[in-house]
Amino acid sequence: MTRLSEKTAIIGVGLIGASLARALREADPSAAIVGYDQSADVGARAVACGAVDSAARTLEEAVRGADLIVLSTPVGAMAAALAEIAATADDGALIIDVGSVKGAVVEAAARLASRAHIVPCHPVAGTEQSGPEAGFAALFRDRWSILTPLARNDDAYLAAVKRAAGLWRALGANVEIMDHQHHDLALAITSHLPHLIAFTLVGAADDLQSVAEAEIVKYSAGGFRDFTRIAASDPVMWRDVFINNKTAVLEVLGRFTEELALLQRAIRWGDAETLEKTFARGRALRRAIVAAGQEKDVANFGRDEKT
Ligand code: NAP
């Protein structure tokens, strides 16, 4: 058993915070895990469902004495929370966040002077659910966790980055280190744009009342329901992602609309070759994702029924 921390404070005990708490406990059962959430009710629920050992009444109470602090609030709340944590944290404590956007967190962290070490992280793992009850220990297993360290190369900080990487590996994740600009562009295409498309599609279907709501639900297995899973994701989390990753999202959205216009034109002119060529790229990419172990090689996402 690896000792990962003496006391861990989880700030924001929703899906990711509770999953991290469970995964940490599984890897190191002796660590004390304290949760703090802006809503006392959520904190109490995190204790009741066994995700954390206790709930602190204030952020300061949670952070004091902790050698590991995990910030798992929506991205929009992170700058203010980081400032408070950095001012309260013990000397040498490791502070990691799990935000889906890294530029905003890196910029906020770089402005702070602290005796603790902030290592921005993003576990590329999640579900469409929220809240402490949705958390589970295996969430990070065989998934990537991307670290975007601050521009510091003193020994103490490099040791903190190494500790953060080791922590994720102990939870079963693979670790990659990159700069925050690269992260935000890569995730804009692999995560943020797909969510935007799903939100748009589901919104458009909802507006098409004339198609009759019954048909939308009844025939949803035709592909629509796979988008509804993504579109069911937490609205506050995603609001903050788009507000904080504006530049990269607008860049990939521009490329996407150009591609869409090409397909629109191909459909209009009956350009079968362009359509087939474009669709074949989709199949090849899916195979590459399966080959990389990021998806299982089962039809229809492994659902039992034949649809
Ligand atoms: P979640 O289930 O909604 O949990 C977030 C929790 O943080 C909520 O309980 C929220 O309380 C609380 N909170 C908000 N502001 C706070 C503050 N200032 N202080 C303390 N607690 C606060 O969301 P999540 O899915 O775990 O996402 C958390 C973070 O992980 C986000 O930054 C997201 O970008 C990142 N992430 C998410 C996924 C995913 O798939 N879900 C994947 C990777 C990374 P209220 O409910 O009262 O607002």
- How many domains? The number is 2
**CATH fold-type name of the largest domain:** Rossmann fold
Largest sheet: number of strands, sense, barrel closure: 8 strands, mixed
User: In percent, how helical is the residue content?
Assistant: 40-55%
Number of strands: 8
Shape: globular
Please report the first level of CATH classification, the CATH class of the largest domain: Alpha Beta
Rg of Cα set: 21 Å
Regarding quaternary structure, how should these chains be classified?
single chain
CATH level-four homologous superfamily name of the largest domain: NAD(P)-binding Rossmann-like Domain
Low-confidence region ranges: none
In the sheet with the most strands, the strands line up as: 3-2-1-4-5-6-7-8
**N-to-C order of helices and strands:** EHEHEHEHEHEEHEHHHHHH
Number of contiguous helices: 12
Structural class call reads: alpha/beta
